[in-house]
Description:
The protein is built from 3 helices and 5 strands; from the N terminus they run H-H-E-E-E-E-E-H. By secondary structure, the chain is of the alpha+beta class. Strand 2 and strand 3 form a beta hairpin. The longest helix has 34 residues.
Amino acid sequence: MNTLSMFLLQAAQPQSNGGGYSGLLMIVLIFVVFWLFFIRPQNKRQKEEQKFRESLQKGDDIVTIGGIHGKITDVKETTVVVSIDSNVKIEIEKSAIVATPVQAVKK
């Protein structure tokens, strides 16, 4: 073997100068970044939506996930009765109500 092939073989072998902690540190750093930018904001948004749904009252104008607009006529534990037209009422789950930007500002 000549010196060039020996050099190339040595260069291809991984170097372990920093120990095993640098890889672990990178994994922890990636997890922290994901938590800060993805998990934490999603949990905050879910808590705000839950608080909004708990604060629904009779007479509030709402919009459902399906796009139905109406006014709450009765509030139950997990559902609400919504009037969508004169003499037309439907009962829907509270989880199917979305907080529109206008509603979020009012609350």
